[in-house]
């Protein structure tokens, strides 16, 4: 029996990258999965590729996590079509990197909007179901950039904000059987970090090799590293862990 059999897991930004790897992991372990992403057809495509176990289902839902009507409709659809909601992974994210003097208001608003407002709207919609069933798991994506990263004032502020948000929800929702934790990944090889390589004028390989040397483990992270962490934090063995941010970075932040 899979660890998440009978559970419904919703993951934002799950059409690709870390979100898709997490969707695969939860599906492998028996969950029904809702893939939420901006583009409904990309979300549906990703849902169709999941390795579901018998009796589990997957749907793809197009929604912008910064839009309250989109989020409310998406969560209602998940509950109606998959029969409930037990785990929320707030993963959708973007970067708009620039040094402060060149950062536009739009760069700021978009990044803070997707990461912080998106996690807020999704968590608020999900908690209604979690509280009434006295069970729920929220896992938020922070980043090692929360500790400070040149060119990412917007992203760092949002990702540290996610840590405060996580701690606060843990306090408010713990009495209702809801665990809220965050993962702060280091470099994970996805389209997001490939785009950063291009901005720095490096090839994807050069950037990955350079980053691998920056941590004691000596390799870059892969989406499956974060998927495994999300499954751990959303599992019942982790039910005494809440309000925490787990750094998954090959030791980069302790080196
Ligand atoms: P990614 O490959 O760029 O995937 C992000 C996904 O989020 C995309 O499918 C994107 O859709 C979707 N998305 C963006 N804005 C959205 C919105 N408003 N509503 C719904 N979906 C939206 O990114 P990733 O590398 O997998 O990162 C996933 C999460 O991990 C992010 O929160 C990121 O900040 C965090 N993280 C990543 C790393 C890393 O090294 N990769 C490190 C630390 C933290 P579109 O394709 O349509 O834009």
Q: What is the strand and helix layout of this fold?
A:
Elements (H helix, E strand, L loop, with lengths): L7 E5 L4 H12 L3 E6 L2 H9 L9 E5 L5 H15 L4 E4 L14 H29 L2 E6 L11 H21 L4 E8 L5 H10 L3 H9 L10 H12 L10 E4 L7
Helix pairs in contact: 1-8, 3-4, 4-5, 6-7
The structure holds NADP nicotinamide-adenine-dinucleotide phosphate.
NADP nicotinamide-adenine-dinucleotide phosphate binds next to α1, α4 and α6.
Rg of Cα set: 17 Å
Q: Order of strands across the widest beta sheet?
A: 3-2-1-4-5-6-7
- Overall average pLDDT: 98
Ligand kinds: NADP nicotinamide-adenine-dinucleotide phosphate
Q: How many domains, in number, for the residues?
A: 2
Q: Outline, from the CA principal axes?
A: globular
The computed structural class is alpha/beta
CATH architecture of the largest domain: 3-Layer(aba) Sandwich
CATH topology of the largest domain: Rossmann fold
Number of helices: 8
Q: What is the β-strand count?
A: 7
Quaternary organisation of the protein chains: single chain
CATH C-level class of the largest domain: Alpha Beta
């Amino acid at each position: 029996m899979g660890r998440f059999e009978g559970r419904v897991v919703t993951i934002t930004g799950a059409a690709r990258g870390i979100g898709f790897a997490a969707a695969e992991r939860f599906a492998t372990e028996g969950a029904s999965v809702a893939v939420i992403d901006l583009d409904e057809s990309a979300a549906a495509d990703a849902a169709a590729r999941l390795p579901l176990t018998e009796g589990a289902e997957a749907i793809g839902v197009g929604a912008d996590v910064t839009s309250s009507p989109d989020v409310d409709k998406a969560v209602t659809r998940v509950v109606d079509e998959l029969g409930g909601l037990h785990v929320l992974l707030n993963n959708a994210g973007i970067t708009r990197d620039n040094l402060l003097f060149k950062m536009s208001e739009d760069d700021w608003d978009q990044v803070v909007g997707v990461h912080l407002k998106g996690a807020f709207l999704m968590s608020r919609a999900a908690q209604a179901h979690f509280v009434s069933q006295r069970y729920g798991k929220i896992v938020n994506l922070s980043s090692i950039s929360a500790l400070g990263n040149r060119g990412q004032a917007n992203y760092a502020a949002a990702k540290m904000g996610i840590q405060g948000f996580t701690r606060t929800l843990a306090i408010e929702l713990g009495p209702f059987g809801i665990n809220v934790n965050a993962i702060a990944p280091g470099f994970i090889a996805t389209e997001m970090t490939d785009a950063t390589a291009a901005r720095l004028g490096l090839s994807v390989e050069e950037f990955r090799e350079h980053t691998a040397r920056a941590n004691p483990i000596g390799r870059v992270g892969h989406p499956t590293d974060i998927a495994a962490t999300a499954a751990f934090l959303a599992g019942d063995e982790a039910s005494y862990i809440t309000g925490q941010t787990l750094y998954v970075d090959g030791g980069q932040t302790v080196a």
